[in-house]
């Protein structure tokens, strides 16, 4: 059986604004029914890519297809197949949640009865029924973003673009949006997510593309990206700063590649291959050397570390 076509496929996308290169040959493949995270520093090209893929901006070069339709030759068909939640709320804060959704339904050419029916379905789906008649301006940040998500799903599009959807939200609000995204994907929606929150990508994304200077510099699963910078790590916090050098020598020898030392926090860390054996050896060696530790443990690299390593190293290949 043939595998399904990508929900999003971009090949060699370029875009310039005057002398500024926003995209420099961006390639991107998003499989259907998944969350694909796009990470990058400010100015990397994330929003430009989304604007091209949602037909808001024409590319300077390259090709892109969304839900099987060409973004340049078939923009109307692309727009009919997508939803978009941008960085800022698009709902009317004077209207209630129900009124907002009915209005969006009418703007999408639904009849009055169909728009009302769809609004009720979405209010229940996004857990907004109890607040349906309150002005959206009185909603919490997380509730407003859930209302934004509901509005983007009026026509149940197969592909949803989320451009930094939780910017400015507190942890509770972010968790509310994350739960809603998981529900959508569980129902078969494909999500392309741009974010600067590394934890967000780690929580939601099946696959991540890291972009910098307008091109993809790495792409993999979250765990695959973490494995690129050494897999598991052993971390030690020493009680006495005078023991930092000796601790670094021990931990670096166990890891085989040297250790990272942070004198201001008394922290020493190194990548290791055999996590259990490394931890056992470290505890014995530190005890034998008479080094007192405040804490010792194993952990996986964070996406923050991956992101910083990759965006600092332009020699990384995809």
Automatic annotation (TrEMBL):
GO CC terms, sorted: plasma membrane
Membrane topology: Peripheral membrane protein
Keywords: Antibiotic resistance, ATP-binding, Cell membrane, Membrane, Nucleotide-binding, Translocase, Transport
One BP annotation, GO: doxorubicin transport
Xref: Gene3D superfamilies: P-loop containing nucleotide triphosphate hydrolases (3.40.50.300)
Subcellular location: Cell membrane
ABC transporter domain sequence ranges: 8-238
GO molecular function annotations of the record: ATP binding; ATP hydrolysis activity
Chief site of localization: membrane
Entry keyword ATP-binding: yes
NCBIfam families: drrA
Annotated family: Belongs to the ABC transporter superfamily. Drug exporter-1 (DrugE1) (TC 3.A.1.105) family.
Name of the protein in question: ATP-binding cassette domain-containing protein
Organism field: Actinomadura barringtoniae
């Amino acid at each position: 059986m043939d595998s399904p076509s990508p929900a999003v496929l971009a090949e060699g996308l370029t875009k310039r604004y005057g002398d500024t290169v926003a995209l420099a040959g961006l390639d991107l493949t998003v499989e259907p029914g998944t969350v694909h995270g796009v990470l990058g520093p400010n100015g990397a090209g994330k929003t430009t890519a989304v604007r091209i893929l949602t037909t808001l901006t024409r590319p300077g070069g390259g090709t892109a297809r969304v839900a099987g339709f060409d973004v340049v030759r078939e923009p109307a068909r692309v727009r009919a197949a997508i939803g978009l939640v941008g960085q800022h709320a698009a709902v009317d804060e004077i209207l209630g949640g129900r009124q907002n959704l009915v209005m969006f339904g009418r703007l999408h050419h639904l009849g009055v009865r169909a728009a009302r029916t769809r609004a009720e379905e979405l209010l229940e789906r996004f857990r907004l029924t109890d607040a349906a008649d309150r002005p959206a301006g009185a909603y919490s940040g997380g509730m407003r973003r859930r209302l934004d998500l509901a509005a983007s799903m009026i026509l149940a599009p197969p592909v949803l673009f989320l451009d930094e959807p939780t910017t400015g939200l507190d942890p509770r609000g972010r968790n509310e949006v994350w739960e809603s995204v998981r529900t959508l994907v569980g129902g078969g929606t494909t999500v392309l997510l741009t974010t600067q929150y590394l934890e967000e990508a780690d929580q939601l994304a099946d696959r991540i593309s890291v972009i910098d200077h307008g091109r993809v510099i790495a792409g993999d699963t979250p765990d695959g990206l973490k494995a690129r910078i050494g897999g598991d790590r052993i971390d030690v916090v020493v009680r006495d700063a005078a023991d930092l050098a000796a601790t670094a020598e021990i931990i670096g020898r166990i890891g085989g590649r040297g250790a990272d030392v942070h004198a201001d926090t008394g922290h020493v860390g190194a990548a290791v291959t055999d996590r259990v054996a490394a931890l056992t050896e470290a505890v014995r060696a530190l005890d034998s050397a008479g080094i007192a530790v405040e804490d010792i443990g194993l952990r996986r690299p964070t996406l923050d570390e991956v992101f910083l390593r990759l965006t600092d190293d332009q020699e990384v290949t995809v």
